[in-house]
Automatic annotation (TrEMBL):
Short name of one Pfam family: TipE
Example GO BP: regulation of sodium ion transport
Gene Ontology CC terms: plasma membrane
Organism: Nezara viridula
Lineage of producing organism: Eukaryota, Metazoa, Ecdysozoa, Arthropoda, Hexapoda
InterPro entries according to UniProt: TipE
GO MF term (any one): sodium channel regulator activity
Protein name in the entry: Protein tipE
Keyword NAD listed: no
Record keywords: Membrane, Transmembrane, Transmembrane helix
Record-annotated membrane-spanning stretches: 40-67, 191-212
């Protein structure tokens, strides 16, 4: 018994499991390498998806912040040639009902309980009194903005002083509104850069992705066979 064969020490069940594992590993399908066309399609799809997502996100965030004020400014139809404005008075108000508008507010949704109203009198250069009138001075068409473009402390200190004289632009649609600066070309540029270009990119990339991955060919409708049921007498 002591000098018996060493094969008796081998567990036959373990040897059988080992053989089965080797056979299963041989039967596993090997990964098929991608062709150049498949790789190009994968990278192109990733690029167009990323472009569509970025352009769509830009539209969602930039339209309320920049595009909407630019469109409102163009609709207000401010005069391109400045007129002469003179500050009449500055009023500080508090309370949500007294602050439905503000000459300048840093943050369009912040500090709604305090506001500054600046009233001016404007006359065209040459002392033409036909267009003379009292109006409210706004930093922009919305009367609000975000730093560094809008600095309300400097705006109020410079134009809120009584009898301050400066050039301004009044609205042809509502002559009770004037702005210190107005550039029509700048407003058109904002609309093109912040809305038109992202919108075109979103549409083009969506169409390209649809062409790449959707089967737009016309397929015939399935044929439905109808069976007639005869009355059996």
């Amino acid at each position: 018994m002591v000098g018996g064969s060493s094969e008796l020490l081998i567990d036959p069940s373990a040897e059988l499991r080992k053989r089965k594992l080797i056979e299963l590993s041989k039967q596993r399908p090997r990964a098929v390498p991608r062709t150049c066309r498949q790789r190009a399609s994968f990278y192109a799809t990733s690029f167009f998806v990323l472009a569509a997502v970025c352009a769509g996100s830009c539209i969602l965030f930039l339209v309320p912040l920049y595009v909407d004020p630019a469109i409102s400014t163009l609709v207000a139809d401010f005069v391109p040639q400045p007129v002469l404005c003179t500050t009449l008075r500055k009023e500080e108000h508090s309370g949500i009902f007294n602050c439905t508008w503000s000459s300048c507010r840093e943050g369009c949704t912040s500090d709604m309980y305090r506001c500054t109203h600046i009233y001016v009198n404007y006359t065209p250069y040459g002392n033409d009194t036909e267009l003379e009138g009292e109006a409210t001075l706004l930093v922009n068409i919305k009367g609000c903005g975000y730093p560094p473009d809008v600095n309300c402390s400097n705006f109020t200190a410079e134009y809120g002083k009584e009898s301050a004289v400066f050039p301004c632009h009044y609205s042809r649609q509502n002559r009770t509104i004037v702005m210190r600066h107005y550039d029509r070309d700048r407003q058109v540029e904002i609309i093109i850069n912040y809305f038109a270009i992202p919108f075109v990119i979103t549409v083009v990339t969506s169409v390209v992705l649809c062409v790449m991955h959707c089967d737009c060919r016309r397929t015939p409708p399935p044929v439905v066979r109808r069976t007639r049921i005869h009355d059996q007498r």
